[in-house]
Amino acid sequence: MKRFLTVWAGCLFFLTATLQAGETVLVRLVRASNVPGIDPAVQDVKQAMSDNFAFKGFSLQDQKTFTLPADTTFTLGEYSIKCQGTQRQLKIFVGQNKKLLVNTDVTLIDGKPLVVGGFPAQDGHNLIVFTSR
Questions:
Q1: Which residues in 37-123 belong to E strands, given as ranges?
Q2: From the centroid of its chain, how far is CA 14?
Q3: Cis status, amide bond into 120, omega within 30 of 0
Q4: CA-CA to 11 of 20 to 30 Å: which in 28, 59, 107, 120?
């Protein structure tokens, strides 16, 4: 019985430590344009952006990270980003100049980028790419 309790306590500790650690989400602001070229900092998400947008060039403008579960607000370039929730139920709000541009609920899949936006910008469009790691 004592051994069972020790194993149970060990499992509970491991589960608690795992839940507290959370997933890390990398959020990148990427400028998409018709000028050919891929910034090495966004090479890992190039396919997701190319599949959804007909641009030839992608360059990193800014990036931030946060952990899940989240209740965080941060600035990414000219955008205000607010994220609330877990990896399975994440609410994402994107604003610019006090105007709400995006209000959506998503599920992030580890390693699979989620591309938000296509916001008009000088010489192209801005994309916001979320990647859970």
A1: 37-38, 57-67, 70-76, 79-85, 90-96, 99-106, 114-121
A2: 26
A3: no
A4: 107
Cβ atoms < 10 Å from Cβ of 21? 10
pLDDT at 12: 34
The label of the residue with tokens 């994402």 reads 92
Please give the Cα distance from 77 to 127 (Å, whole number): 11
* Cα 91 to Cα 85: distance, rounded to the nearest angstrom: 6
d(CA 98, CA 52): 27
Instruction: Match 């899949």 to its residue by tokens.
Output: 109
Tokens of 97: 């100049």
Question: What is the band of 22 on the pLDDT scale with cuts at 50, 70, 90?
Answer: low
Q: pTM of the full predicted structure?
A: 0.82
State how far the Cα of 85 lies from the Cα of 72, in Å rounded to an integer.
Answer: 9
CA 69 to chain centre: 13
Q: What is the pLDDT of residues 38-55, one digit of tens each?
A: 999 999 999 999 998 999
Helices of type H across 1-133:
2-21, 46-52
